[in-house]
Design goal:
alpha+beta, T-fold, 30% strand, five-stranded mixed sheet, 11 helices, 2 domains
């Protein structure tokens, strides 16, 4: 997955600041880390704003001289070109250690070891010949297996073939350090925002009693005037975006994503875009990159286990998936509570019936909430992760899976044995917004190899009143009970 060609560039940013009624003093610069730089400072006069700007830019320039892979004289470039063990500076060693920690946390979906692989794709860009896939796979595996010891403060050998490329984490790490320098330079400031090419840190408040408002653009239309799919309110948080639509390699008539899978060095097919909010920019940066490579369900499971982290993942064709913490960041009405009283819970009990069949196969099954006109509102459950057999759920496939292979892995789980199971709904749509009171349909669809297909629908009205509905399928779906009421 690239990491140097991440491609959230000026003019194509997925994250955009939203002006507030009392706008802090704004400063802008171009060609900072190869992209645009914006800084807003609240609570201090102009001369102190300029002092904060100078401190932040000086720190960015200092660290760029350490971490850049685009400057032949940077410390990282010299280290990559060296033979024999070299002693990295404290800054470089800290970043490489962070890279290796995230590599382990993500099951090697994140990697700063990909410089040699990325160089092959850059060389092929604009030509007619693809890199040799077998050679890339062999190199990727050798790089992944290479032993690297960054403990202590002594010299570190660079394994043969391993070229470090830290862009997937370095920009976030630089943002964190730039914010520290700016705060130290102007301690009287009440709020600071630093944005480099769409990734940003937000500290304090833009005005007393307010939060920073941040618009998240539709990854499929990443323009400053494109549609926004969410607006967030942030206080002392960082945000990063990663996607693959705007950069990559053009080889012959085909475009290849810059997002490489570290396991084989090949561009990821159907790679999603990701927006991550975390307490620090380095974490947000690393996770945003990792989520474009990991299966969506696995990536969101990782996010759920990390304190203070929330994420939005959008598939190539626009299907959104959010972590449980995303809703709390949404601005205004989108952040409102579900349309039922406190203490209520929405649950669906469903049955996979036992079948008397010689060649029994566990059924593929999908459960989702839809509007009365069929428009999907929220996926609740998908059992079965094979695209071939999920096509046997035609209604779900039309609404969610069609032409969107990565959506299959959004919430798909293994098929289940016959029995009674339960799934809940938090009252929000696929983007994390609270669903309004009104009329909806619970849809349950099942299909079985060597068996049949069945679709069961339970219309219901969402309001402050309890609900107790029941319906049974004829063959592939057993009894379904929908309950909204006091949590059990």
């Amino acid at each position: 997955m690239n990491h140097a060609l991440r491609g959230v560039l000026a003019g194509l940013a997925l994250i955009l600041a939203v002006p507030s009624s009392a706008e802090p003093a704004l400063r802008q610069r171009e060609n900072v880390l190869g992209t645009s730089f914006e800084m807003a400072v609240a609570g201090v006069p102009d001369d102190e704003v300029d002092r904060a700007l100078a401190a932040a830019l000086a720190e960015v320039a200092r660290l760029d001289a350490v971490l850049s892979v685009w400057k032949d004289d940077s410390e990282l470039a010299r280290y990559n070109a060296s033979t024999g063990a070299q002693a990295p500076s404290p800054d470089l060693r800290t970043v490489l250690r962070a890279c290796e920690r995230w590599r382990e946390k993500t099951g090697h979906a994140f990697s700063c070891r990909l410089g040699s692989l990325l160089a092959r794709w850059r060389k092929a860009d604009g030509g007619e010949t693809l890199p040799d896939r077998a050679e890339l796979r062999t190199l990727a595996r050798a790089i992944d297996r290479a032993a690297v010891d960054l403990a202590g403060d002594g010299p570190v050998p660079r394994p043969e073939g391993l070229q470090w490329e830290t862009d997937a984490l370095a920009k976030g790490w630089i943002l964190d350090r730039a914010l520290e320098r700016a705060r130290a330079a102007v301690p009287a400031a009440t709020g600071i925002r630093i944005d480099i090419g769409g990734d940003a840190v937000y500290w304090g408040e833009p005005a007393a009693g307010t939060a920073w408002r941040v618009a998240v653009a539709d990854p499929r239309q990443p323009r400053d005037n494109g549609g926004h799919i969410a607006t967030l309110t942030l206080r002392s948080r960082a945000i990063a975006a990663s996607g693959h639509g705007s950069r990559g390699a053009q080889i012959g008539r085909r475009h290849y994503s810059h997002v490489l899978d570290p396991k084989d060095g090949w561009p990821v097919a159907y790679a999603p875009s990701a927006i991550v909010v975390a307490d620090d920019a380095a974490t947000a940066d690393a996770l945003a990159t990792a989520l474009t490579v990991m299966p969506i369900r696995a990536g969101l499971d990782l996010v759920e286990g990390l304190p203070g982290v929330a994420a939005l993942v959008v598939t190539e064709t626009g299907t959104p998936f959010v972590s449980s913490g995303w809703a709390a960041l949404l601005d205004g009405d989108s952040r409102s509570d579900p349309a039922w009283p406190a203490g209520f819970a929405f649950a669906v009990d469903y049955e996979i019936p036992q079948q008397a069949a010689a060649e029994y196969r566990r059924p593929y099954l999908a459960i989702w909430i839809a509007a009365r006109d069929g428009t999907p509102v929220r996926q609740l459950l998908v059992l079965g992760d094979s695209a071939r057999w999920l096509r046997e759920l035609p209604t779900w496939w039309r609404r969610y899976g069609r032409r969107d292979e990565s959506a299959i892995h959004g919430i798909a789980r293994e098929t289940r044995r016959p029995g009674r199971y339960s799934v809940g709904w938090d009252g929000r749509d696929d983007r994390g917004r609270a669903a309004a009171a009104g009329d909806y349909v619970l849809v349950v669809e099942a299909a079985r190899e060597h068996g049949g297909h069945e679709l069961v629908e339970l219309p219901f009205t969402l309001s402050a009143r309890p609900i107790a509905l029941e319906r049974s399928g004829a063959a592939e779906v057993g009894r379904i009970q929908l309950r909204l009421g006091a949590a059990r």
